[in-house]
Predict the structure of S-protein homolog.
Amino acid sequence: LTICGELDLTTVDKIIITRCILTTKYTVYIVNSLPRNSLPLIAHCASKNDDLGNRTLQAGQSFNWSFCDSYIENTLFFCNFRWGSKHRAFNVYTSKHRADCFKKACYWEADPEGILFDGVYPPQALVKLYDWN
């Protein structure tokens, strides 16, 4: 049983569970490092069960979310980044590759050259993983 995040009890009453049981909590960070005065980064992130919706990030803005990895190791979150006419879709977290997020953080940064990654927060050694399409 994985318990993490927000659990709807009713339409009014909600309970926030902050601990993962029998599994590990991970955090995904999405950061816009595109030039100031450029078009915003539109990030749409989701999993099979959770759609985080579209996020419009101006230069320098970010958002993040935390979740409990599944004990059966089938967690997958993906994002579609759009910056003007450029775009890129990719997995931001998969249980199979969770070792890449070795400090329990998956840090993704959009810059003019592409999508950068680091497995720690704050980032220490960003690596370009994807070009823009």
Summary: The chain has one domain: 23-130. Residues 23-130 form a domain with the Immunoglobulin-like fold (CATH 2.60.40.10). Residues 1-17 have pLDDT under 50 and may be disordered. The longest strand covers residues 86-94.
